[in-house]
Amino acid sequence: MSPDHFLSLHKTKVSYGCVFCLTGKERLVANGIELFSKKARARAVCQTMRHTQKGVTTLRDDVVIPGYVFFEAPYDADVRELVPVDDLISVLSYSDGDWRLFGEDENYAKFIFKYDGVLSLSKAHKIGERIVIVEGPLKDLEGQITRIDKRNRSGQVTVSFAGKQQKIWLGFDIVKELPEHETCSVARES
Known about the structure:
Blueprint: H1 3-11, E1 14-21, H2 26-36, E2 41-44, E3 46-53, E4 56-63, E5 68-74, E6 88-91, H3 103-114, E7 118-119, E8 122-127, E9 130-135, H4 137-140, E10 145-149, E11 154-161, E12 164-178, H5 182-189
Parallel strand pairs: 3-7, 8-12
Antiparallel strand pairs: 1-5, 1-6, 2-5, 3-4, 8-9, 10-11, 11-12
């Protein structure tokens, strides 16, 4: 999508929607929506994950919500002009037939688009034995972190979409380590 097209999309009131597609086809469907309609941006929800094979750790963006693709389009758009039918099962809609997300669903879609569909590794400081998230998706969800796994450097968060609570693990990297006693001097300075 060209930068000019993206800017024009954001000059009008935008809405968010979601499609249900064949599992494993999320990226293809997202690309298809953008090619089919010049009015929409679409993203499969991906997460940067660590994969270790033969002692070598690599980072890869994996789809974490199989079968779903979120899209952003002008409020007054006709959904039939936005979404191609290939590999698509249905456009999700509410009981009144409206495809536009609202409430927690819309907030979740905005969160996904804030990170352009990729929930990358957050940055954290290790202060003594505590982990403090300083940047990234986990920072935005700080109040919803239910567990921290220090060994695997990930945090479990509870997110709400389509009326369901989902627990997902998001990774983080420790970018700075401080001894516990330094937190007092940092707190006094602020």
